[in-house]
Fold:
Amino acid sequence: MRIYIAGPMRGHPLYNFPAFDAAARRFEALGWEVVNPAQMDRDIGFDPTGPVPEGFTEEALERDIRELRTCHAIALLPGGEPSEGVQEHELPLALALGLPIFDAISCCPMLPT
Structure:
């Protein structure tokens, strides 16, 4: 089973990469294959201590949406409510695909509201 980690990045120290990485480790320990946007960013050379390259955000969002479509579930990090990526793109797509939604901290399924 494959799970996508979603959460806020902008406005957080190191773009919240430590929280994404911790969530990835938790789900991997449970046997999930994890899609971690922070790791995908690092894999293409993004340095969370530096500036965001021009055009990077749009390209990363397109990549993230492609990856999310290959997943069986989504896990939400805390603080995603004000995140444009989570609220306008990732969560609506996950809901449209009927993916189960997990809390990225507890690794437990979230009940629909």
